[in-house]
């Protein structure tokens, strides 16, 4: 349903763009070419395609996903390309050197996000972590809280039982489905993994007891769709016509925002009354606290650089859920897709997992911690190289004029780092299009664990610099637990004897690069989950 709506919007939008292009050509308005790379007054602008009047270079992005179209432009014009998307001057960088200049050399100047009209509504006017101005005490305090409280290694560890329980429940449901059919179960892996990650994130964020969970998830899904950008009101913020034509997106953003806000307020109210019943002590044990418990405690205690109003609490919860669930589900689904497409890699990953967990009937995190599964970790990294869930990381905005690779970039320009294109570039990754986890495997013939904490600019799944993702440790723990559980308990193959090499790997349009079609695989139980050991026969090695 949502995919259909998105498609309808894109078709409508494409038609509108074509109309605008037609009008522009008919009027034959003269425009200044920026392809030469020289702007007025001897400014050395980055090269790029010639913009049309009104729409700028939007037509250059038509017919392909934005990160694909941007890679094609980089191949033609170079690693730093200037575009005008509607009214918005935009630079796209597509090499590690250029990314280093954005994320390290000019980090302080390029660390704000452009606050599009829809993002402004959905982020409570930039009061959340992802859209707050980077120099502000508010953002600094929220980032500090992420590091020390909300997403700290200790907090991530404290969510271990939630990860284990939810992964076990996924395994149980697949095993039960397999038991009820005479042949291996056909499993919609995409749907199951999305539910798993939604449930894990929801429990970590607001606890078990959220009666409005499904409604909240649906509203957040809609919010993510709107946040994908490329709405008329975002591209033409100064145009009254675009304002009128794009009023629907604005209305939808306000409506979703109100819905999310109402639900979170009710959840907060529920938490607050439970805390009151516990004499204000939350759960009583800091390690049992969910993220909302922590935020409410900090709100009560005060003494922060910023005031945690209810709006700020809602905005931070929005961040945690919206940023955390989609990225981890998308990565897990792509990892399973690549493994299904590359059976020898699947076999090697499964052998490692089954050797380490031999004799167990359920996956406990304590058994897989540390470097016990180096090949599986290499599989996750290789997945993130080929399928970074945020292919253009998140947009940055240039506060002052800067120079990138010798090109002048004016203040106010939106900057995209095409992490997807960099990860697939033969110049830095031999056999770039192939799924070869060995390149990340310190024990194999690869170069070992490439740093993915933003220090190696060939590999930027979590972005870099001061705005780098604060949730990577949390995300990786969720992804690893899901993959280990799926690989340990089941053998997987494509249904109907389909050729693995033919598996559809197309991406859908959106803020994240998810699969276009659901991943559907055949699951044959290999190790029975604990609760079902005596219920039906499983294959044991
Ligand atoms: C594999 C999992 C994940 C990936 C690949 C990922 C990727 C990213 C990327 C590329 C950015 C933009 C960074 C930049 O502009 O340089 C980002 C920002 C962010 N991520 Fe993640 N993320 C993941 C998981 C999570 C999780 C689990 C959470 C929280 C529960 C989270 C919370 C955030 C937040 C709050 C920001 C905004 C940071 C800021 O603007 O200061 N992420 N993430």
UniProtKB/TrEMBL annotation:
Heme binds at residue 469. Gene3D superfamilies: Cytochrome P450 (1.10.630.10). Belongs to the cytochrome P450 family. This is Cytochrome P450. It comes from Sorghum bicolor (Sorghum). InterPro entries: Cyt_P450, Cyt_P450_E_grp-I, Cyt_P450_sf. The chain crosses the membrane at residues 12-29. Coiled coil: none annotated.
């Amino acid at each position: 349903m949502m995919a259909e709506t998105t498609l309808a919007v894109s078709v409508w939008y494409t038609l509108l763009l074509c109309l605008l292009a037609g009008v522009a050509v008919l009027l034959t308005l003269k425009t200044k070419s920026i392809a030469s790379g020289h702007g007025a007054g001897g400014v050395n602008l980055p090269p790029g395609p010639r913009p049309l009047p009104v729409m700028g270079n939007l037509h250059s992005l038509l017919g392909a996903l934005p990160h694909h179209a941007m890679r094609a432009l980089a191949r033609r014009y170079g690693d730093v390309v200037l575009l005008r998307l509607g009214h918005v001057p935009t630079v796209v960088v597509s090499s590690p050197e250029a990314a280093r200049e954005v994320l390290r050399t000019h980090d302080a100047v390029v660390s704000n996000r452009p606050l599009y009209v829809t993002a402004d509504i959905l982020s409570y006017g930039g009061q959340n972590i992802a859209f707050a101005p980077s120099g502000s005490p508010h953002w600094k305090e929220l980032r500090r809280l992420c590091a020390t409280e909300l997403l700290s290694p200790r907090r991530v560890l404290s969510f271990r039982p939630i990860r284990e329980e939810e992964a076990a429940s996924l395994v149980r449901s697949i095993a039960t489905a397999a038991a009820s059919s005479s042949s291996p179960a056909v499993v919609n892996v995409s749907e199951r993994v999305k539910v798993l990650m939604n449930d894990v994130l929801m429990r970590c964020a607001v606890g078990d007891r959220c009666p409005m969970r499904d409604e909240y998830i649906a509203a957040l899904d809609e919010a993510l769709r709107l946040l994908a950008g490329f709405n008329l009101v975002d591209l033409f913020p100064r145009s009254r016509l675009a304002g009128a034509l794009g009023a629907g997106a604005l209305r939808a953003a306000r409506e979703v925002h109100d819905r999310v806000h109402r639900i979170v307020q009710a959840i907060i109210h529920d938490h607050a009354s439970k805390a009151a019943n516990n004499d204000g002590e939350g759960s009583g044990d800091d390690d049992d606290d969910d993220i909302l418990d922590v935020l409410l405690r900090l709100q009560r205690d005060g003494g922060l650089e910023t005031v945690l109003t209810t709006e700020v609490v809602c905005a931070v919860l929005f961040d945690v859920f919206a940023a955390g669930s989609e990225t981890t589900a998308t990565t897990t689904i792509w990892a399973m897709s690549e493994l299904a497409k590359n059976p020898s890699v699947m076999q090697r990953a499964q052998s490692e997992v089954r050797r380490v967990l031999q004799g167990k009937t359920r996956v406990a995190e304590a058994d897989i911690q540390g470097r016990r599964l180096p090949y599986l970790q290499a599989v996750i990294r290789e997945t993130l190289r080929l399928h970074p869930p945020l292919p253009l990381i998140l947009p940055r905005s240039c506060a002052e004029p800067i120079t990138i690779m010798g090109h002048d970039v004016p203040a106010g320009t939106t900057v995209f780092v095409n992490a997807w294109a960099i990860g697939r570039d033969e110049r830095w990754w031999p056999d770039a299009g192939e799924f070869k986890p060995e390149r990340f495997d310190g024990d194999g013939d690869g170069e070992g664990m490439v740093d993915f904490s933003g220090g190696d600019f060939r590999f930027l799944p979590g972005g870099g610099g001061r705005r780098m993702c604060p949730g990577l440790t949390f995300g990786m723990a969720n992804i690893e637990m899901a993959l280990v559980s799926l690989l340990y308990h089941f053998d997987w193959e494509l249904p109907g004897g389909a050729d693995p090499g033919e598996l559809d790997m197309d991406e859908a349009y959106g803020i994240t690069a998810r699969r276009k079609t659901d991943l559907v695989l055949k699951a044959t139980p290999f190790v029975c989950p604990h609760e079902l050991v005596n219920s039906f026969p499983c294959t044991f090695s």
